Amino acid sequence: MSKTILITGGARSGKSAIAEAQALHFGTPATYIATAQAWDAEMEARIATHRARRGPEWVTHAEPLDLVGALAATDGQGPRLVDCLTLWLTNLMLGGHDWRAAARALCDALPRQRDTVVIVTNEVGAGIVPDNALAREFRDAAGLLNQWVAATADEVFLAVAGLPLKVK
Amino acid sequence: MSKTILITGGARSGKSAIAEAQALHFGTPATYIATAQAWDAEMEARIATHRARRGPEWVTHAEPLDLVGALAATDGQGPRLVDCLTLWLTNLMLGGHDWRAAARALCDALPRQRDTVVIVTNEVGAGIVPDNALAREFRDAAGLLNQWVAATADEVFLAVAGLPLKVK
Amino acid sequence: MSKTILITGGARSGKSAIAEAQALHFGTPATYIATAQAWDAEMEARIATHRARRGPEWVTHAEPLDLVGALAATDGQGPRLVDCLTLWLTNLMLGGHDWRAAARALCDALPRQRDTVVIVTNEVGAGIVPDNALAREFRDAAGLLNQWVAATADEVFLAVAGLPLKVK
């Protein structure tokens, strides 16, 4: 049976490795839907590290904005891993798109998928309140997006030191 | 039976909605003890959003500093929701009050309540160490306050993506 | 039977008190392996507060860099508490040492201990992405170090408001 699974956690908490293992549990080949855009050398290095860890059982599908379209295009080909919601939100906000409408469309599309979707996101709200208004706005949006996707997900895990803690 | 219940979590982790549902479980009408003070437009908007979500079963009791007095004044009228400890601490510290004495008085008062008290607080210590000393001092105080209230609480939950994870 | 136990959590989440109780469960005297170096008055005050809480059943062994050596020197004398990994990492990085090699050596040494080792570390990755590159680099390193030690540990706990939440 196909599922929607959300993996959240802080930076370098092992979310991606947990998500990859869970996706492969639903079969191979698996599709890696990458929302990352390489804005600078640091991000390029991060993307390369993630890609190097994934094995030959993965097909990469890069899509910074149209997640619903990427899910439609890859459904029926095995499990999908969306990595990650937080970068997708960043792309939407920086591009001046309506992130709330996009989030609603995603939450509508998820229960209609035939193949499993594992989604990685970030916990960004557990530090001190940020100084600048844009960071606070992003933090609020990311928290709401996580709540909405968690509400529609079948399973939710919090990654702590590389270990999955079941929340739902 | 009445209880003290603490809900902690990061920004926009769904703490307030979880706390509201838990409080209403103990009956209606319920009293919303609001510690927020509208310092600026951003805070005013946040307060308005929270108030709009609460239904007609809620009576609002605004009290930025004297939480023990607010609990005494509202006991016997149904469950109370204190939202939130972190803003209360901010009010105490900015006003030059002795927050440790106030916290001790609160922890003494909580077990003596006849009606349930659900308390919302924030996780602020899971980010990188803040640059400025005041933010570090606040972060330390908030962490200690959370520990003290959690020690006296009957139940403690960590909100993750809108979902309650039972800690105690 | 001896164990490796990792306690992670945010600032002032009660990690040290939880770790001390767990270590003393394995016998007394217990050795407190302190990685802290007092760079300034704030850190000195923090160290003094921690020391004041520990009772006479504790022997302090200060070691900012050579954790493997400190474990070898104290094995066979009762449980050890390493407080904390994050300061050890800071010392390694600021001193220009190869923290990855040091982390691998630590993870190799831990399963070979005869006496229990309880290790305290910090969650630093659940806030907003830091502005400066050094903070991001430290955050990434701390997250990886936590994952590696958690993978070799027998038990892992997340401290939330002074309460231990079992992760492994």
TrEMBL record, chains A, B, C:
The name of this protein is Bifunctional adenosylcobalamin biosynthesis protein
Q: Where is the active site?
A: 50 (gmp-histidine intermediate)
Q: In which pathway does it act?
A: Cofactor biosynthesis; adenosylcobalamin biosynthesis; adenosylcobalamin from cob(II)yrinate a,c-diamide: step 5/7; Cofactor biosynthesis; adenosylcobalamin biosynthesis; adenosylcobalamin from cob(II)yrinate a,c-diamide: step 6/7
One Pfam family matching this protein = CobU
Q: Which reaction does it catalyse?
A: adenosylcob(III)inamide + GTP = adenosylcob(III)inamide phosphate + GDP + H(+); adenosylcob(III)inamide phosphate + GTP + H(+) = adenosylcob(III)inamide-GDP + diphosphate; adenosylcob(III)inamide + ATP = adenosylcob(III)inamide phosphate + ADP + H(+)
- According to its UniProt record, which protein family does this protein belong to? Belongs to the CobU/CobP family.
Positions of GTP binding: 9-16, 34-36, 51-54, 83
UniProt EC number: 2.7.1.156, 2.7.7.62
Task: Give the record's keywords alphabetically.
Answer: ATP-binding, Cobalamin biosynthesis, GTP-binding, Kinase, Nucleotide-binding, Nucleotidyltransferase, Transferase
Task: List the Gene Ontology MF annotations in alphabetical order.
Answer: adenosylcobinamide kinase activity; ATP binding; cobinamide phosphate guanylyltransferase activity; GTP binding
Q: Which GO terms describe its biological process?
A: cobalamin biosynthetic process
Entry function: Catalyzes ATP-dependent phosphorylation of adenosylcobinamide and addition of GMP to adenosylcobinamide phosphate.
Q: Does the keyword Kinase apply?
A: yes
